[in-house]
Amino acid sequence: MPSQGALSALVAGVLLAAAAVFGWDTFRDSYHLSRAVQGVGPAFFPRLVLIGMAGLAVVVIVQELRRRSAPLSGEGAARAAAATALTVLYGIGVATVGFLLSSIAFIALMPVLLGYRRWPVLAVLSVVYAVAVWWMFERFLLIILPHSPWFATF
Amino acid sequence: MDPLLAGLAAAFEPASLLMVVIGTVIGVLVGVLPGLGSVVGITMVLPFTYGMPQTASIALMLGVFCGSCYGGSITAIVLNTPGTPQAAATVLDGYPMAKRGEADLAIGWVTAASTLGGLFSVLILILAAPQLAAFSLQFTPIEYFALGIFSLTCIANVSRDAMAKGLLAGMAGLFLATIGTDPVTGDLRFTFDVFELSSGIELVPVIVGLFAFSEMFVRTAERLDLGGAERFRVGFRLPPLREWRPRLGILLRSCLIGSFVGALPGTGAATASFIAYSEAKRVSPRRERMGHGEPDGLIAAESSNNAVTGSALVPTLALGVPGDPVTAVMLGALVIQGVAPGPQLFIDQMPLVYAIFFVLILCNIVMFATGALGAPLFTRVLRIPEPLLIPLVMVITLVGAYGVRGNMLDVWVALAAGAVGAVMRVTGFPIAPMVIGMVLSPMIEQSLRQGLVVTRGSFLAFFERPIALTLFALTAAIFLWPLVQRLRGKGRGKAAERVPDA
Amino acid sequence: MHHRWNRLSAIAAGVMTMAAATAQAFPDRPVTIVVPFAAGGGTDITTRAMQEPMGKSLGTDIVVKNTAGAGGVAGVAEGARTRADGYTLAMAPVGPLTTQPHLRKLPYDLDSFDYVCLAYSAPSAFAVRRDAPYNTIAELVAYAKKYPGKLTFAVQAIGSIPHVAGLALAEMAGIQLSYLPVNGDGPAFKALLDGTADIFVPHVSFLSKNKEQVKGLAILQPERLPNLPDLPTAKEQGFDIDTPIWGGLVAPKGLPAEAKTKLEAGCKAATEAASFRKLMDDLAQPVAYMDGKAFEAYVRDQWTRNRRLLESAGLKQE
């Protein structure tokens, strides 16, 4: 595993690159309404911020590369990556098969991934909790959650 | 009848009392749920106010407002996630305290601080509403710009341990908020022709992602406790009086900050709590412990954000200018109720004004009771085995991100922010500065550009106004003071190098 | 194994036919109305006042959803892109329908919608501080000519109806105004009070609600309003400016006929309900209702007119 310093420098490097890309974007010719107003245009403030961002990114890179830091422990990284992937799948599930069905699946699967094995608890909890949240939002708070393509109400 | 007595009678009508309780409880719940905040809560109860008597409908809305300002702090303590943006500064000390096993005490501190802050602001509202309204009119775009720049010092103050990283995160936050439609000219910025981005990156999904999702992602990497975590104390514990005594100065200071910031239209409880926190971090004798579970941080964040509730009503009632989205909804509802806020309100409708004062006081008392009674339930969440807790929190977080605008894009934003937040936690980038940057960015940019319209393009004219000049000078002093101290310190021998804690 | 699958699929099929069967009668579940502005504004309040009576007429709940952003375009675009089943409508206001399309490329145009009804239309007015040294448009113009470049006009958004009104005034009178873009009525009012701006264009009800702080110079429609007989029209004063602030319900193109008929009836019932009328009275706002056909014709007419105004102000995108 890389050290914390190296990883920090990498993050700052990504921000530096982002600042460059967005800075370049401020020169695009799509800012046509701006002539209606006095003072500075739409690109002024973002450019100021991006310059600050780029400068600080360089400072962080230099600082972090000079700092000696222990390598991060890679323990659990695989599990965290799997959990993250499952969560992204959950998001995709909400968008495609609706909130309720994907939530039941997610609440049942995530604990398994994390080493939990009491099946009756999982079965009851996933259904009860998902339905409770769904009910609270749809019926009580009147915030309509994504539906599945198959049913009219969930 | 005497207007004071008439107001008292209206506030203590059974319908009003009932609405105070219902409103406050709903407010606390909405605040506790990550993502949903004051605005969602108040629009939720809005339809019910139409058919109600005047005082009862106001009681319902004020209850939701006060409750939601406080509720977010519980989630901040228990889950390391602010339930609302207002509670983002509460995380800094609330969660470390809970991690020590003292969630019950942390909730005691924030509940008491919130109630005291709320009551303080009612006092301000009673004593000085017209004066404060006049003061808020001293703030033109130029003063807002100066205040925004001053507030940026918060970023530096909360990232003492990793200054460059904190400032970089703050800059990234400032930038994120500029994506979307330019608030001044309506031009599209950084949308790369993706239409969904034209309404910008919403603050709430970013906050729930940076805090809640990232916290859960990081926890999955740890060796998880499959049983319940018995070391967490559940319940509600008020801090003893002797703990309060040395902290009264911080409390008073934070209440004042909250009341003043709240009275300015266009700023809100989130800004107030960051300014108060960073002020506490600057002046508190216990500042070295702040960020590691020091009550000073909780007092500063929570008394100031609840002190906003009373004073946010100042411009709303005394001028008819809503102070923030929440009071805008309330103003709309008041108009439907036949109340016309404005300077005349304090002359013609004193009974109503007094009723509002009493209702606010009652809301704060009920809020305290809700917190005290609800704390055992909320803290019990900590005893849910972590493998179960993680998906449960994630589901409610996802709904919170989705629910603000009812938009899948916000879910993706929250998940992306979760990944970013997890990387930040691992690499030791502080998260709060990014949120501060995002909160302040629109205010700073808009006031800067509006100010330039006012001065017809002259930036130098910004320094000709006394309030703005004072704020600029304070900012400079705060930024330069540590440098001066360091130069002095160098003469006396090198200070021990601080190790940034990840 | 086979048995189980058969049983499962039979249950699933049963549930689905049940869902399909109930779906035949519109509406069988809540109807969502997207409001393209934040809660608490005029559009939002009007929509929420329709919520209860319209729901009663339709026999279901109405859910109001605020999708603010991009000057109202984001919410209207959301309304244009949902399923055309009548369960999601947008309260489309004048700006996103008839001025914004001329300013930039949008993901919808007038043909993206089926028009349900015009729900409200309110006259706007020129408002200034109570203590301002002018009481008529002529005096304002004289002041602007005496102190060129001094007057600041607060606009709720570039290209919004208030902005169009200001542009029209400046052009007709040959004066110079500086435009200060703010985020809506509240901030515009604040800018007026703290002296940052000198004039702005609110909804006419604003004048009666805040009469200690502001005064109206002119109402921006051809006739005086019965509730405000003392407020002269701009036309009387020699400036033919007619910029009402209106909004109506639209649905994505392809709305089923049955749903359209029911929604039109629901909208009509809502605008006739006593509670809605009372709100309109409180706002000093005449009730305005048009059915889908009339509303569509009106929108197209306003679209052409605002295009001309923005073009002559040099704001239209080439």
From TrEMBL, chain A:
Pfam families for this protein: TctB
InterPro entries for this protein: DUF1468
Ranges that cross the membrane: 44-62, 83-113, 119-137
Domain DUF1468: 11-146
Protein's recorded name: Tripartite tricarboxylate transporter TctB family protein
Alphabetized UniProt keyword annotations: Membrane, Transmembrane, Transmembrane helix
TrEMBL record, chain B:
Pfam hit, one: TctA
Organism superkingdom: Bacteria
Signal sequence, start to end: none
Membrane-spanning intervals of the chain: 20-46, 58-79, 106-129, 141-158, 164-182, 194-213, 250-277, 352-375, 387-404, 411-439, 459-484
Keyword Transmembrane helix attached: yes
Keywords: Membrane, Transmembrane, Transmembrane helix
InterPro entries, sorted: DUF112_TM
Record domain DUF112: where: 17-436
Cited PANTHER family: TRICARBOXYLIC TRANSPORT PROTEIN
Name of this protein: DUF112 domain-containing protein
UniProtKB/TrEMBL annotation, chain C:
Repeat recorded as keyword: no
Pfam families on file: TctC
Assigned keywords, A-Z: Signal
Gene3D superfamilies named in the record: Bordetella uptake gene, domain 1, Periplasmic binding protein-like II
UniProt feature coiled coil, ranges: none
Family the entry assigns: Belongs to the UPF0065 (bug) family.
InterPro entries (alphabetical): BUG, Bug_dom1
Organismal lineage: Bacteria, Pseudomonadati, Pseudomonadota, Alphaproteobacteria, Rhodospirillales
Name of this protein: Tripartite tricarboxylate transporter substrate binding protein
Signal peptide: 1-25
